Amino acid sequence: MAAAGVPVIPGSKEPIYDAETGAIIAKEIGYPVIVKAALGGGGKGMRIANTPEEFEQSFQTAQKETQMAFGDNTMYIEHFVQHPRHIEFQILADIYGNVVHLGERDCSIQRNHQKMIEESPSVALSPRMREQMGEAAVRAAKASGYQNAGTIEFLLEKSGNFYFMEMNTRIQVEHPVTEWVTGIDLIKEQIRIASGKKLSFSQSDIHLNGHAIECRINAENPAKGFRPSPGTITDMYLPGGKGIRIDSAIYSGYTIPPYYDSMVAKLIVWAKNRAEAVRKMQSALGEVIIEGIDTNVDYQYEILSRPDYLSGNIDIEFIAENEKALAQAVSKEF
Length: 334
Description:
Layout: H1 19-29, E1 33-37, E2 46-49, H2 52-70, E3 75-79, E4 85-93, E5 99-111, E6 114-120, H3 127-143, E7 148-156, E8 162-168, H4 175-182, H5 186-194, E9 211-218, E10 220-221, E11 227-228, E12 231-232, E13 235-237, E14 244-248, E15 255-256, E16 263-271, H6 274-287, E17 289-291, H7 297-305, H8 307-311, H9 318-331
Antiparallel strand pairs: 1-2, 1-3, 4-5, 4-7, 5-6, 6-9, 7-8, 9-16, 10-11, 12-15, 13-17, 14-16
């Protein structure tokens, strides 16, 4: 990535398998550092060490979780960027070397390093910053010779500096957000690319229209550390209408198993601007009924009601810093 002119976070260059080696590299990088699973994803196998004294435990905990989740104990270490936004760019690349980006998604609202709310466009990006990050995303895809739909993920500091974090070589949960603001069916484009066809549009044809937000509806209990809540759905109602999309396979009587990710539905809305999109999402969340299990629906509603979220003043620490207030607000409703 660095050779392609894509900004990267200072970090380890070789696989790390033990805490002793990791501690030496962490000292060279400079604290705070974050220990990550080399072959992981989804927020698993990640721990922060703010000081040398914290490093060994952080490394061992992350490595143990990595081994359990991915069957691999390869780790890497990088400088920990404090209070960044998580900004990702959707790209499409055909077999002829044509690559375009379809704008960004702001995925900063997260719990346990896993996304909860995604939106596009990001209020943090000026047109010039969007252009710079989008160009970097295209360079990253071209540097790897990538083909298909993919996502280039960045951490964006308040200073405006941004760093490549990872690439997801697949369609992502939050792709409907991009589909709605661009009008492009990403799954259809994947099939075209796989069929050996060229992209049917160029970068100049991509324009962002309106604002889209997605909430991941999870079978979990936010008041108990987002503990998964498997079980049988006894009754349910999901909203619909203009500017509202539901992606889900659940139904009344469906039993949610305990073996997989806790997400059971995606609720996506589109409106002419962010303020209208937030109001539409609040209205849609208010209509959701899923009985028989715990969900994060009320928790999501409270997030969208917080002044900092409404003003766009968010980063990846938003939930951690508002956890107590959010929990209290939800508990008052019952």
